[in-house]
Task: inverse folding
């Protein structure tokens, strides 16, 4: 369209040398979060959706991953090449882009809204048998199309809460249920049925059945509580299911749940 340079001319930085009309293919500049940098490769498949063409998906591929990150937004600049045979894509338009993962390793995915990010760590609410829920710390990976990869903390087939997890998380906090850290070994719990004979914020006295995994017969015994919140909603006479942890010679109550009809 325009050629403003000739042999022997002196050029200034930023000066326009030529304007090129060809738009058979266009470059789309994509800002990719720094956390997803490890999954980017040249030639990766990309899908672009433009507000100008609702419902349409434009397929392209990653042409280049530029070498610098934006220090303010913590994003990488990726150049995606899109075919444009009809000339509908024009400079200045905006788009939302999904990059298809090219890794050969299988990943475990959960809905992104299932991940609770507290600032210090990430949690999901794990649904267990009997309608119980338990917070679990996870290591999230990249996000893609409303899903988040889980690199550590979950196994395939486990069920997580994808809606209302903030309410469950709040309730779990009130009851003293704490998600174990990924850096900590899993705590083995020993369970039995019992009845509360005395309880306060520090300890509980139980007439309990046998703890088979400990080899402990039925007896009456006082145990310290791992968290004062465990006593909430409980009183003398309540029938409960108790879960103990063992550290050396010390047994400590980690969970205390009402069971059956109460006298």
Result:
């Amino acid at each position: 369209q325009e050629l403003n340079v000739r042999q022997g001319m002196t050029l200034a930085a930023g000066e326009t040398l030529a304007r090129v009309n060809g738009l058979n293919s266009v470059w789309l500049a994509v800002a990719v979060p720094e956390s997803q940098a490890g999954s980017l490769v040249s030639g990766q498949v990309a899908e672009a959706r433009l507000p100008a063409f609702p419902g349409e998906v434009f397929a392209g591929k990653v042409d280049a991953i530029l070498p610098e990150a934006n220090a303010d937004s913590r994003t990488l600049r990726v150049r995606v090449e899109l075919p444009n045979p009809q000339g509908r894509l024009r400079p200045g338009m905006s788009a939302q882009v999904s990059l298809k993962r090219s890794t050969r390793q299988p990943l475990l995915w959960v809905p992104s809204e299932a991940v609770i990010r507290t600032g210090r760590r990430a949690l999901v609410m794990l649904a267990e048998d009997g309608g119980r829920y338990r917070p679990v710390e996870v290591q999230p990976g990249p996000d893609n199309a409303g899903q988040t990869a889980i690199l550590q903390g979950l196994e395939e087939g486990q069920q997580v809460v994808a809606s209302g997890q903030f309410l469950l998380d709040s309730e779990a906090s009130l009851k003293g249920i704490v998600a174990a850290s990924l850096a900590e070994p899993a705590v083995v719990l020993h369970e039995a049925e019992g009845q509360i004979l005395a309880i306060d914020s520090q300890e509980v006295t139980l007439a309990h059945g046998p703890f088979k995994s400990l080899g402990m017969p039925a007896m009456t015994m006082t145990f310290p509580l791992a968290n004062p919140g465990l006593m909430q909603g409980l009183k003398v006479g309540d029938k409960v299911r108790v879960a103990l942890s063992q550290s050396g010679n010390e047994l400590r109550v980690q969970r205390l749940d009402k069971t059956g009809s109460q006298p």
Notes: The chain has a mean pLDDT of 83. The first helix runs from residue 165 to 174.
